[in-house]
Amino acid sequence: MGLAGLHFHDLRHAGSIWASKAGTSTKDLMARMGHDDMRAALIYQRATSDADERIADRLSELVDKHRDGVADTTDGDEDEPDDGDSGQPVPVG
């Protein structure tokens, strides 16, 4: 590429960070990098302000849905007792 100071490993490192930011799972990132050890993949999955912002936005969406009375079923936990009208758990059994 003719870029002074740029090495192949720099490109691999950048690609792994970008793959992690795109939401790649640890297992998939390990396969992409050719690693058997999770520790190497975790280096690329470091916390970022982007991740903090996505988490905060998702939490805000959940709070808004709860306030609007719209149930969120994305967690897949169908065994949880339903909340009553007051938002308090309803006794089961």
TrEMBL record:
Keywords: DNA recombination. Residues 60-70 have a biased composition (Basic and acidic residues). InterPro entries: DNA_brk_join_enz, Integrase-like_cat_sf. GO terms for molecular function: DNA binding. SUPFAM superfamilies: DNA breaking-rejoining enzymes (SSF56349). The keyword Hydrolase does not apply. Residues 74-85 have a biased composition (Acidic residues). Residues 60-93 are annotated as: Disordered. Signal peptide: none annotated. One of its GO terms (biological process) is DNA integration. This is Tyr recombinase domain-containing protein. The lineage of its organism: Bacteria, Bacillati, Actinomycetota, Actinomycetes, Pseudonocardiales.
